[in-house]
Amino acid sequence: MNIQKPWLALEIGNSRLHWGLFVGETLDCTWNTDYLPDSVIQQLGNGRTLDEFPAKIFTLPSSLPLVIASVVPSQTALWQSYPNVRVITLENVPLKNTYPTLGIDRALALWGAGIKLGFPILVIDAGTALTFTGADSEQNLVGGAILPGLGLQFATLGQKTSQLPQLETQNFTSLPPRFALNTPEAIQSGVIYTLLAGIKDFMTAWWDLYPNSKVAIKGGDRTLLFNYLQTLYPEITAHLIVEPNLIFWGIIYV
User: Fold this and answer.
1) Is 214 part of a structural domain of the chain?
2) Is 111 a member of any domain?
3) 126-152 mean pLDDT
4) Which of 4, 53, 189, 203 is least enclosed by beta carbons within 10 angstroms?
5) Which of 105, 201, 208, 221 is catalytic?
6) Is 105 considered catalytic here?
7) Are residues 187 and 165 in contact, defined by beta-carbon separation less than 8 angstroms?
8) Which of helix, strand or coil describes residue 116?
């Protein structure tokens, strides 16, 4: 791949596809799509561009080189037929002290954040799962944690209980009352305040270990959670970096 030419990066997440268009080493633009069926992937490989893609893609050469980072093996397999494709695996990330089942998304985001912002670094990914992943000043993985993300917690309550409604995070604006007087707000209160307290606890515990460390947050719920944290804990949120493109940083540095 000629590093001076345009190319595509694709993060295959648990819920959606996250795309980045690079020109050389510069990230030009990003966008998201739903998963694509095999027939559409075949058409992309033959040079067809989808309506969901930015208009500028239509002016570029067909079948751009594609670099993939995926946490969904079944989706990864669909892209093997795409011409000029490279799949990044954990072995490609120079992070030290990793373990075999560490997600490539966590490793790349941590590596990208560390190279760009400096080690030590803690990355919070507010996606389908909420994860914490940290590395020390020697680029060693310190470790982290995984729990259900905001939307997944609401979905689980709605799907696994007979009388509780399923709530959608896109309908949320401000913090709910902590002691609610109706069921929807009681669910919001229980999930949101507990989640925010957990994020605060992990951040302060990290700063106990690495007082001068940067902390960055990414993922689909990053803005919502950042705004909530800013309301409750402005003193810690002032030191929280919101950056949606950490994985794309990791891809370019790998």
Assistant:
1) yes
2) no
3) 96
4) 4
5) 105
6) yes
7) yes
8) helix
